[in-house]
Amino acid sequence: MKQFLFTFFILLLISLFATNCNTEHYNFDNSDKYYKYDISFPIKAENFSSRYFKYCPSLNNFCFYSKDQKKIFIFSFEGELMDSINLNIKKNLDDFYVLNNDSIYLSIENENRILLISKNGNNLLKEYKLEIKNLNKPFYTYNYKNFPLEVRNNLVYTYHYLDNETSKDNLHNYFSNPRELIFHLSDTLHLVSKIGKFPSNYISENYLEMNPMRTFGYKNNIVYSFESSDSLYLYDGNEYEHKLLKSINLKTKYFKKNKQIDEDNIPKENYFEEITKYVIENDRYGDLYFCYETNNYFRTLKIGAPYKNGDGTKKQVEDCPWLLLKYNNEFDLISSVKFQPSHYSIYSMILLKNNNFIVPYLINKNENETKFAVFNFD
Predict the structure, then answer these.
(1) DSSP 8-state symbol, 336
(2) How far apart are CA 91 and CA 104, in angstroms?
(3) How far is the C-alpha of 74 from the C-alpha of 86, rounded, in Å?
(4) At how many degrees (to 10) do helices 271-281 and 2-15 cross?
(5) What is the DSSP letter of 314?
(6) Which of 5, 123, 180, 331 has the CA that lies 20 to 30 A from 209?
(7) pLDDT, the chain, mean
């Protein structure tokens, strides 16, 4: 499992972003047109992790979990530190979800265990052990930025994988089965639903992608999107069984289908170099966002570019062109915005409300803070 997580992180960091299509003949809005102001948080740049930095709608504040200090820090919209929560846990935290002012859920790494704590952090209100009846193979819950822990209407939403499921021989099973587990808090042995399968072509085609993305969207539908596919899958989030409503192929004109990669023919000594090159040069989608106030969807797209520059240096994902595609609730494209390359970490973008986004800068002149640009795409 540790080997899987290492590979998973490598692919997640590299693979959230890639593309290979020329966009020079398209007219895009420039992101500068939508820039509002900067905001900085007193988080050392070296300690910042987009996985643990969140906008928490229930508090209308930002929260950041520090692995070193085992604390959740709460910040205002001005970047001011307002409060902190000590987490008296000995195990590693996988993810956290702030339900309200005094109910915070913590998922514990490698244990399929969720803790409910109060805001003071010292009071364990309840502990939940997630189990599946009649399952004869171990499973592991895991959450990341684009598939975070979520608690809604007494239901827990979490990504999972089975023991050894991500080994090369078992990938057919991995891509054939749903990734989302939904449990009811009143009975965590009661698995309500398993939803969120990959597109069918992932079973036979290798795009070096193992990271589905989940979005709660229009009318509380649940949308699953993927880095190397135009396809979206919509499930009924109000229906107890979470039935599949429909699939949508956006057929985005800016997105060029990824070439397949043959990992077997990559020399071991060049493995990570070749993977990085592949991801840089192929198109990849980032996250899909939904704004409840305006009923608009937003999807980030990294446009592929040559891995090597003219001077012999090599590109990072941030050096590629990045787009933000805005859709209405029927997924009709409204507008397209292009960001300045090598300036922002677009894959760490966070939606606030009313089409406001914050995006971290690549370089912070003050290393004792993390600086964001604020945009509004109305």
Answers:
(1) E
(2) 16
(3) 11
(4) 40
(5) B
(6) 331
(7) 91
| Nearest Cα residue to 97 out of 80, 72, 75, 122 | 72
171: part of which helix (H) or strand (E)?
helix 171-176
DSSP 35-51: EEEEEEES--GGG--GG
pTM of the shown model: 0.91
Q: How are beta strands 333-339 and 29-30 bridged, if at all?
A: parallel
Answer for the pair 239, 263: CB distance below 8 angstroms, yes or no. Answer: no
Q: What is the DSSP letter of 237?
A: S
Q: Name which of 98, 99, 90 is nearest 70 in CA terms.
A: 90
Q: Which residue has the tokens 């446009």?
A: 303
Q: pLDDT band at 15, cuts 50/70/90? A: very low
b (16+ CB within 10 A) / e for 220-248:
ebbbbbbbbbbbbbbbbbeeeebeebeee
pLDDT in tens, 318-351: 999 999 999 999 999 999 999 999 999 999 999 9
Q: Which amino acid is at 372?
A: F
Judge whether 324 and 343 are in contact, CB under 8 Å: no
322, 303 Cβ separation under 8 angstroms: yes
Provide the token pair at 148: 């975070």
Which amino acid, residue 375? F
Which secondary-structure segment (H or E) carries 127? Answer: strand 124-129
**pLDDT tens by residue, 129-152:** 999 988 888 999 999 999 999 999
Three-class DSSP category at 273: helix
Which amino acid, 128? Y
CA gap 203, 314 in Å, rounded: 31
Instruction: Read off the tokens for 232.
Output: 């979206």
Neighbours of 26 (CB within 10 A): 12
Cα within 13 Å of Cα(137), Cβ side: 6
Handedness of CA 12, 13, 14, 19 (dihedral sign): positive
